[in-house]
């Protein structure tokens, strides 16, 4: 069975999560420190191959009024590039408040600020992917 990869695409990092083989649960995999676009795409290609990924979900940061701002446009452009580079289906998923939710969960778990910074993007990617997987299972 194939897995779905979830991405939280940011200015400095890309949070990466992958589903289990059944598409039920999302696990954070890593945080890619962004360098050159071709390096980022190569690392994503490696992860996709390693986990036998069949499709990808990229978090789309919408404004609270449901419009798409500059950050959303950047994510749309990235998802198009990713689709071309990896030759896999790429969906966009509304990610409003996932980073906020990840931060809150880590705060409640009393994780230090330094450690939060290291894992929040990976956790946000897992939340984006989990929300997507949950929506698919309800159909």
UniProtKB/TrEMBL annotation:
Glycosyltransferase keyword on record: no
Protein name according to UniProt: Putative pre-16S rRNA nuclease
Stored SUPFAM superfamilies: Ribonuclease H-like (SSF53098)
Annotated function: Could be a nuclease involved in processing of the 5'-end of pre-16S rRNA.
GO molecular function: hydrolase activity, acting on ester bonds; nuclease activity
Enzyme Commission number, as recorded: 3.1.-.-
Family: Belongs to the YqgF HJR family.
HAMAP family: Nuclease_YqgF
UniProt source species: Paenibacillus hemerocallicola
Family annotation (InterPro entries): RNaseH-like_sf (IPR012337), YqgF (IPR005227), YqgF/RNaseH-like_dom (IPR006641), YqgF/RNaseH-like_dom_sf (IPR037027)
Any single biological process term in GO: rRNA 5'-end processing
Cell compartments where the protein resides: Cytoplasm
A GO-annotated cellular component: cytosol
Domain YqgF/RNase H-like: 2-102
Assigned keywords, A-Z: Cytoplasm, Hydrolase, Nuclease, Ribosome biogenesis
């Amino acid at each position: 069975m194939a897995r779905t990869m979830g991405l939280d695409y940011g200015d400095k990092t890309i949070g990466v999560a992958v589903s289990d083989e059944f598409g039920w649960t999302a696990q954070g995999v890593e945080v890619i420190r962004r360098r050159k676009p071709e390096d980022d795409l190569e690392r994503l290609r490696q992860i996709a191959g390693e986990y036998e990924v069949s499709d990808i979900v990229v978090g789309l940061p919408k404004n609270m009024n449901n419009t798409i701002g500059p950050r959303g446009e950047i994510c749309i452009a990235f998802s198009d590039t990713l689709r071309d580079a990896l030759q896999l289906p790429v969906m966009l998923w509304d990610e409003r408040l996932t980073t906020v939710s990840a931060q809150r969960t880590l705060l409640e778990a009393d994780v230090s600020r330094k450690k939060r910074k290291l894992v929040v993007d990976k956790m946000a990617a897992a939340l984006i992917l989990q929300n997507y997987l949950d929506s698919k299972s309800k159909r």
